[in-house]
Amino acid sequence: MTAADLHIDHLRLGYDTPRGLHTVVDGFSLTLEGGHIGCLLGPSGCGKTTVLRAVAGFEPVRGGHIRLGDQLLSAPGVHLAPERRQVGMVFQEYALFPHLTAAQNVAFGLRRQPRPAQEARVRELLGVVGLAEAASRYPHELSGGQQQRIALARALAPAPALLLMDEPFSNLDGATRQNLTVQVRDILRAAGQTAILVTHHEAEAHTMADRIGVMHNGRLAQWREMARPV
Ligand SMILES: Nc1ncnc2c1ncn2[C@@H]1O[C@H](COP(=O)(O)OP(=O)(O)OP(=O)(O)O)[C@@H](O)[C@H]1O
């Protein structure tokens, strides 16, 4: 299967406030080739999270459109429900379910699959993130980096067409953060996973990205293609 391209065209996003519509993103366009990793950089408040939330289906689109492969996800008056978008997410706060084990967390998005298929997929993903031995541990028994690897395994388990990551490493300290960035990049590349990462860290963007975009005044100032070392 060929991974789907993401197309965002002249996107306009905003929030309704008591003083009227507060437009945050205007004229934002990008194309991300299937199987590639794109990074959005930019100052605090420039609209990076708002763009990710719109792609995930948590914000309505005021103008322009978002398309994943042949499927129109969002446009004015068009809104595919988040659970029908095949979009996975990993956030800054680990957001694992504290009362579920690592394996149960990873299985969460697989509830509709038969039990044996679920178990096989959970084993596979725990192996991919290098935490096979942590299957029966609870989140509070895992380090921050381990929790974030479980969150990644959980997001990848249903094989999303697109993975969104919003500052996924920002709660981690220096060496852990650097190691995890490289590990996650290698996992995503090996899986041919299309992904968008939002970060404040230019070095992180350079480690991860096939394309880097800098957001400025609600649009993308550049969308640079980076060489992938062979
Ligand atoms: N629910 C909301 N209601 C009104 N305004 C909002 C809401 N959420 C975000 N905003 C505003 O939208 C703008 C963009 O916010 P957003 O969170 O997308 O920025 P960001 O680039 O992700 O910032 P950061 O890097 O600090 O996370 C900000 O000015 C913010 O105050």
UniProtKB/TrEMBL annotation:
The source's superkingdom equals Bacteria
List GO BP terms, alphabetically. Answer: quaternary ammonium group transport
Q: PROSITE patterns given for it?
A: ABC_TRANSPORTER_1 (PS00211), ABC_TRANSPORTER_2 (PS50893)
Q: Report whether Iron shows up as a keyword of the record.
A: yes
Pfam families per UniProt: ABC_tran
Where in this chain does the record put each ABC transporter domain? 6-230
SUPFAM superfamilies to which the protein is assigned, alphabetical: P-loop containing nucleoside triphosphate hydrolases
Q: Does the keyword Protein transport apply?
A: no
Give the keywords, sorted. Answer: ATP-binding, Cell membrane, Ion transport, Iron, Iron transport, Membrane, Nucleotide-binding, Transport
GO cellular component terms, semicolon-separated? membrane
One annotated GO molecular function: ATP binding
| Identification of the protein by name | Iron(III) transport system ATP-binding protein
Q: Which organism is it from?
A: Pseudacidovorax intermedius
